[in-house]
Design goal:
The protein is mainly α and 301 residues long. It has helices at 2-13, 21-33, 37-49, 57-69, 73-85, 93-104, 109-121, 129-141, 145-157, 165-177, 181-193, 201-212, 217-229, 237-248, 253-265, 273-285, 289-300.
């Protein structure tokens, strides 16, 4: 069974062979028919995502249920998520919490993270910050970067515990080093402002860049600001524009406003008041008050 499931995974991902979802499904189903719970979960994933088959959430639920009932923690986690989202099955937060806890108690880090969030917000369980911290900590100790980030936030903002910048920075750093773009951005903010750490614009820029390269639009905007001002990096208006544009395309109103300023002033781009007005309008429609004021100034001129 295990060999069949592994062969399915090889074709699903395309490891040393051409990716072939049909062959992946064939091998998964052979393993699943013999009761392989991991293969049953993998079939559920393919149906949920429409990989080589028509997307079918109800069929995904059927396979996740089989996997969960056969004791696979990954299947239990996926089954819980379907209840939580009401995807392919009637939403039920209590059932979601039940299956998520079963998975978490088998040390599945993503389930531990989700149980932490469910206790933190009172979803399917009574709200309990101590339980939230316990599950986040278990997940974080296994390297789950979202849990590490949330622990950092709780220490930083005194949510359910005493403020502890040392602990906050340690968890943010571990999360950031694991590639979590939100942690990279947040730690970048702290270095930029000197919040709990010695102010270091070069380190802020490095962290922003790591986050921005993953497409996180707040980091793209902030790194654009640093290139525009020459803080922590060599001043480069064209790079600032590129970053603003990437962020603005994700509907970041600050970046939209900043891009408007660049066109208004002809900084990094040819001066173009019509294009400036277009970006100010978009930013204003997204709630940026400064953009609305800039539009009025352009009208007066």
């Amino acid at each position: 069974m295990e060999a069949q499931n592994n062969l399915g995974a090889t074709y699903s991902v395309g490891i040393d062979v051409k990716q072939d979802y049909a062959k992946a499904m064939k091998w998964y189903k052979m393993a699943a028919a013999q009761g392989d719970a991991v293969a049953q979960c993998n079939i559920g994933i393919m149906y949920e995502n429409g990989e080589g088959v028509e997307q079918d959430a109800e069929e995904a639920v059927r396979w996740y249920r089989a996997s969960a009932e056969n004791g696979y923690r990954g299947g239990q986690y996926c089954y819980a998520l379907m209840y939580l989202r009401g995807n392919g099955i009637k939403g039920d937060e209590e059932k979601a919490a039940k299956w998520m806890k079963i998975s978490a108690d088998q040390e599945y880090p993503d389930a531990q993270f989700m149980m932490g969030s469910m206790y933190r917000n009172g979803v399917g369980v009574r709200k309990d910050t101590e339980e939230a911290v316990m599950y986040y900590s278990m997940a974080a100790d296994q390297g789950q970067t979202d849990a590490q980030f949330e622990l950092g936030r709780m220490y930083h903002t005194r949510e359910g515990m005493e403020q502890n910048d040392v602990e906050a920075i340690e968890w943010y750093r571990r999360s950031a080093e694991g590639g979590n773009m939100r942690a990279q951005f947040t730690l970048g903010l702290m270095y930029y402002d000197g919040d709990g750490v010695k102010q270091d614009h070069k380190e802020a820029a490095r962290l922003y860049r790591s986050s921005a390269d993953q497409g996180f639009h707040p980091a793209q905007n902030n790194l654009g600001e640093m290139y525009r001002e020459g803080k922590g990096v060599k001043r480069d208006y064209k790079e600032a524009v590129r970053l603003y544009r990437s962020s603005a395309s994700q509907n970041n109103e600050c970046a939209q406003f900043n891009l408007g300023e660049m066109y208004r002033d002809g900084t990094g781009v040819p001066k173009d008041e019509k294009e400036a007005a277009r970006w100010f309008t978009i930013a204003a429609e997204n709630g940026d008050e400064d953009a609305a004021a800039e539009l009025k100034r352009l009208e007066i001129r």
